[in-house]
Amino acid sequence: MLDKLAYISTGLGITSIAASIATWYAEKGEDVEENAHAERSGIFIGLWPQTFFALAIVLFKLKELGHDKDVKRLLKKLDKKVKEAEA
Fold this sequence. Notes:
Blueprint: H1 2-27, H2 32-46, H3 48-64, H4 68-86
């Protein structure tokens, strides 16, 4: 479970890099203000990959330390609480 979440987080980090470049390129224009906005948008999205990669490292370490069983136990409790709330 943790390794799947870590791989998803890694994928989101790589996707964020591509999205940052794509946003900067797509929003560029002829006007100086449009270029400034494009740069700010690209930089904003460019801040996300570090968070996703750090989360992936933490999740991989938790898996390595054997906390996968804890996650399954917590998910069962959460599922039980959700079913109680729905009833």
